[in-house]
Amino acid sequence: MLCTSCGHENLPGADHCEECHASLTHEDVPLARIESAIEHSLGEDKVRTLNPVEAVSVPEDTALDVAVRTMRERKIGCLLVTDRAGKLCGVFTERDLLYKVAGKVEDLTAQRVSQYMTHDPEVIRGDQLLASALQRMMVGDLRHLPLVDAEGRPKKILSSRDIIDYLAFLVEGILDPNEAST
């Protein structure tokens, strides 16, 4: 019996693959293929595969009202904050706005985004594995992960939605291969 996950030839009647331990029972085959595809993707595909969007950033001395207005106008949940050299020094998110600003700061024009941002955020590069991005986001309870270049300048932003959409695309391709190719 051929394993649909790894291609290993197993003895007829086996319940699980000797090689990868995937289920060989008929009803579990799609699940085994899904698990295998996700595991393969996370361990092989790079972050740039998700084609993250361009980052929106502001200097650290930006007034808080300008930062909030920028997020509203651009319809984004995360703003990257840069120092004078253009390197990432923080992120300002909807979560920061809710927990650090809302109901606490009366004059947003008098405050700077650097006072309320999350300093020294987790970052990733486009050439790193998806597994690394997912692990950082899960451990840090992050919805957004900035992608930086070798000098630490923000380039793109990876969101949890990007990863969810990508994994959903993989699953759709396994459950109905004809739909995923269209």
What does this structure look like?
The protein has 182 residues and is an alpha+beta fold. The chain has 2 domains: 1-44, no CATH class; 49-164, CBS-domain. The chain is built from 6 helices and 7 strands. It has helices at residues 29-44, 64-74, 94-101, 130-140, 160-175, 177-180; strands at 53-54, 57-59, 78-82, 88-93, 118-119, 144-148, 154-159. Strand 6 (144-148) and strand 7 (154-159) form a beta hairpin. Helix 1 packs across helix 4 and helix 1 (29-44) crosses helix 5 (160-175). The protein is elongated. The model has no long low-confidence stretch (mean pLDDT 88).
In short:
The protein is an alpha+beta fold. It has 6 helices and 7 strands, in the order H-E-E-H-E-E-H-E-H-E-E-H-H.
| Helix share, percent | 25-40%
Q: Which runs of at least 5 residues are low in confidence (pLDDT < 50)?
A: none
CATH 4th-level superfamily of the largest domain: CBS-domain
**Strands in their spatial order, largest beta sheet:** 2-3-4-5
Treating each run of at least 4 consecutive H or I residues as one helix, how many helices? 6
Overall mean pLDDT = 88
Radius of gyration: 22 Å
Instruction: Predict the CATH topology of the largest domain.
Output: CBS-domain
Instruction: Give the H and E element order.
Output: HEEHEEHEHEEHH
Strand fraction equals 15-25%
Number of domains: 2
Number of strands: 7
Shape: elongated
- Which CATH class of the largest domain? Alpha Beta
